Amino acid sequence: GYPLDKLTNLTNWRESYAKALQSSNPIPVHTHKDSEIFKHPDAASDDELEELAKDFQMFIKAVMLGVVLPRKDIYGFYISRGNFNNIGTEQLIRRDGVFDRYEESIVSQCDVIQNEGGDEFKAAYFALCKYYVENVYSTKKAHGTITIPIKGLSTHVLEKMADSIYPKSISSENKENICNILLDPNNVNKWSKVIPNTAHHIDKTEVHEFTEDELEHKNLEVYVKRTLSENWKFEVSKLLNMNGAHSVSVGTVPPPAPGAGRLILVAIGGKQSGPYPEETIRAMVKNGELDPGKTHVWWESCLDGWQLLNACPQYLPSMQSAPPPPPPIS
Fold it and tell me: For a Cys-Cys bond, which of 17, 134, 229, 285 suits 29, CB 3.0-4.6 Å?
């Protein structure tokens, strides 16, 4: 039952023990460690630890974005339709990392979502990082006369991920405002969704055990991972606009004025933008910025999915013909 990749170290062990026995003052071999030759088979080097942290960061980000999915306890990702590749349990990934041959595909799929998400991605990603820190990998606390927070690998990685998405020029107050809006119990399910049966995947020796009072106060599911929902970009933009927080990111779409109507998402050639107020859509059509025959639109209450703009007469210029010239003066 001993891992085959560890047996290669047995020669080093024998050499180390022989060297100790031949010394003028031999010590018990079971307590001896020769740093020049002997290396414990399970002891990772600094470079190996850094690589494991990098792999774990990639894994968590891919789970957040829905690129890596769990099937029972095994996580994996789709290379193509119907072609699902297993990469292992969370514990296995933390211990051994992710195979290099899978890394490029996972990273590229994450990059597509990030590059198309714009400022809404920054807000959603930042909020998810904070959610994972507070609810999934909550910092363990050592209880006694003083409560001391003890960070684990996952918490450390997630805090670095959150810091990397927003520049330091954005104030902590604005960042907190984003989290308060998106992670509000009434809002969080609008742009993200629970990944079922993931609470037991964590290492419970590393995380804080919530009390009943804490659970009631948080009013959120704990230890359960979340991922972006299908219409996350639209919902995130709408929530930030409604709460006057869109300027926290650097979005160009101003919040709609009171009574301005619904917000519209636009898709041209598979690329999505918006959402825009209705009046902006009408103006863009009138100015020739949108081709009604090639532009699709969607809004929250549109139950039929994306619609060709041509099929939405409320956003097209009036088709009435120009009035005839006035009659001649008699």
Answer: 17
More confident: 325 or 40:
325
Q: Closest Cα to residue 183, out of 243, 130, 248?
A: 130
Mind listing the pLDDT tens digit for each residue in 214-225?
A: 777 665 677 889
The predicted pLDDT at position 194 comes to: 92
- Amino acid at site 1: G
Angle value at C-alpha 201, between 195 and 207, nearest 5 degrees = 110
Residues 277, 263 contacting (CB under 8 angstroms): yes
Q: In this predicted structure, what is the pLDDT of residue 285?
A: 86
Q: Chain-wide mean pLDDT for the chain?
A: 76
User: Which pair of tokens denotes residue 137?
Assistant: 């990998």
